[in-house]
Amino acid sequence: MLYGFGCCLAVLAMATGRAFAAVAGGEAGLVIESGWSTADSESVAVRQAADRVRAVVPRPGFLLVLTTSGYDMKKTASMLSARFPSAKLFVMDSYQAVFSDQGYHKGNKGALALLGFQGGGNSYGVAAGDLSPCAAGGTECYSEKRMEVFVREAAISTIRRAIKDAGRRDSEQPALVILGAHFGTADYLADAVTEFFGRGVRVVGGVSSAGNGAGGRVSANGVTLSSGMAVALVYSSATVGTFFHAGFMAQNRRGVITSARGGRIYEIDGKPAFDVYNKWLGGSLGSRPSGAASSIWGPAHLRPLARVINMPGSSPRYIISVSLEAFPDGSISQASLVREGESIALMRGSADILSARGGYVARKALVDGRIKRKDLAGGFHIYCQGAAFVGLAWSKGEAGLVEMTEGIKTETGGRPFIGAFSLGEEGSVKGQGAFHGNYMSSMAVFRQ
């Protein structure tokens, strides 16, 4: 019987080009497979992507799903659940396209990517949390502090439901936390994850993107939300590696945020933030606005500010917070949360850096997990939509996005992976907890 089972696996592996792992005692190790489609209907897209997955992973225990806004997410998730009834589903929107070990995928109506997980003794828990009472200035969030409290409470509740869904206890540390965040709340979600699981938590995720500059949808186990968060917990005895990185070069300009509220910096080193930042950029922001706020994103996006995370015994890490607008009072608004007392530094990026970053992040995630390519089962990558479609594609076109994807494929040895373009990125820094940043990449890789 075991011989016959082994022969079936061997034949299937040769047919698909995928390798199957085995652990001591003959039990199958973790096997991961990807699938994708850009069909013009949800039903065809689901069938095509699902058929690619089930050729190698017929009964996944967990399914990571990325879709674009052209597809009906609730319908898509329902059809996938019918095809994979034993799988826990985590779903989030990706901006305009998705990518995988099979390439960069963009359709006329939409794009879909799946990553199926089977074997290895893993367990998974997923849950979705409703944030609609706090969305679009809802009455539950009449102040920044109230929003922080509301999101924290919703996040802790969602995490606990995901733990229960996995059949685990609060005291058990997952190997990985996967996050689908809602626009404007991602920093508070990251803070809640660190509070709950500690600074040693490993995280990958991003802000779900609707494709029109606004927050997108999430879904978990049949609950689909347009204003919500989704959490997936992976419990595994096998190693998971993660890395969270921008790749931009730190410049010789640094200060301390001396006045800030929420996502707005008022002062750096006791001076108006706009004046300090503009001086660092050689005056490229122009004059401080005298009337209404004005956008500074154009000149700022490849020379952004970044929060400095000092690492004991090693070089600092940088969490980019892209500047959006300048105000007559000298303050500047950021796309992610900043706090008084934090060090802030000037960074410099380029299309070449952004193209190479995907592969670099994949390589560093393998190093973090101490996983050799031959032992890699697969991975999940989050890449900033602004970095992709502005910083990279404006210079190199969609060929730059293909190049970025190929870099990940090279570093992972062609193992299965999928990736999303997000409106903000969630990741972890070793020993420092979870963070939300902009213009960044986050990746998790899984050992067989």
Describe this entry's structure for a reader.
It is a single chain. Residues 1-17 and 19-27 have low confidence and may be disordered. The strands form four sheets. Strands 14, 15, 16, 17, 18, 19, 20, 21 and 22 form a nine-stranded antiparallel β-sheet that branches. The chain has a six-stranded mixed β-sheet with strand order 1-6-2-3-10-11, covered by helices on one side. It contains ten helices and 27 strands. The protein has 448 residues and is α+β, with helices and mostly antiparallel strands. The two termini are 23 Å apart. The chain is globular and about 60 Å long. The longest helix has 23 residues, at 144-166. The chain is 29% helix and 33% strand. The protein has two domains: 20-245 and 352-447, no CATH class; 249-348, no CATH class. Strand 18 and strand 19 form a beta hairpin.
Proportion of β residues?
A: 25-35%
Question: Number of helix segments?
Answer: 10
Number of domains: 2
**Structural class given helices, strands, pairing?**
alpha+beta
Gross morphology: globular
Main β sheet profile: 9 strands, antiparallel
The overall average pLDDT, rounded, is 91
The parts where pLDDT drops under 50 for at least 5 residues are: 1-17, 19-27
In total, the number of strands is 27
Nearest-angstrom radius of gyration?
21 Å
User: How many angstroms separate the termini?
Assistant: 23 Å
Q: What's the short version?
A:
This protein is an alpha+beta fold and 448 residues long. Helices cover 29% and strands 33% of the residues.
